[in-house]
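Lab notebook, bench 4. The sequencing result for the construct came back, and we need a structural model before the next group meeting so we can plan mutations. Quick request posted to the team channel:

Model the 3D structure of this chain.
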Amino acid sequence: MALLDIKDLRVDIDTPAGVLHAVRGVDLSVEPGETLCIVGESGCGKSMTAMAVLGLLPATAKRRADYLRFEGKDIDALSPRALEDLRGARIGMIFQDPMTGLNPTLTIGRQLTETYLRHVSRSAAAARERAIALLGEVGIRDAAARLSQYPHELSGGLRQRVMIAMALIAEPQLIIADEPTTALDVTVQAQVLAVLRRLQTRYGVGLILITHDLGVVAAIADRVNVMYAGEVVETGTVREVLLSPSHPYTRALLSCVPDPRKRARSALGSIPGRVPTLIGSMRGCAFAGRCAEELPHCATTEIPAHPEGSSEICRCLRPTMDIPERAHV
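Done. Here's the predicted structure in token form:
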């Protein structure tokens, strides 16, 4: 049984200009212990999908789905209290910016132990012991002394490690990490990813990692969902998606990745055009108009999610065309 299983998730947001269809028919599943990366440009609906799962959408947004299940239970059927328990105890969240994800007025120790006391045990001693142990596990030295510090007293890398510890303190079954390495330099980014991978393996949790960085995808993913304009356009294993991409958008994304094998000062790839507006109805392929492989009827024909005979998603009328030279990963 899948840990998280979603069918036809949609998120609509009321705006002065009309209804914005931020998430359009997303299917998603995560197995225990699996790492699923959701990748795509900024504004494609990655974070909105995660917020929909957690029930943290803005007041103007409406969520609907054929089903939205965690551990076989319908999330939509949960009471507000049960949903709070799910978020704290069964699903952990790592936010993009730890300076906004952490409360600047509370110590690190207070924020770590608060989650433990709410969802695991009323014992303050046990909460403190667990907090110190987890800070050590995420690679923070002098963990006991760090409990009395405030977020601004830590570096960006240490704050992100604290966020990882907070996500794990109640021993959840699933972690959702929203761009957890975006604000970090390359060296610290690699360290944080290594910590995530090691702790995921140790605790056997599922991980949904949201990113626009294909290097992060290559480093940590088991499976990949590629999103564009609010919908998943391609799914597959990390090797399938990065080495043999089927959708033109995935190939275009990969062409934008700098390749160390190319000569210095070679031009970087880019995707021409603009992302379409998500306000109002959209019938054909959302990537039509930017796609180098566009067919005359791509913009007007409803695109099936699954090519015939495939269990993977590839929203394209010509997914089996010849694939260009494989990307360097």
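DSSP finds eleven helices and eleven strands in the chain.
Will bring this to the meeting.
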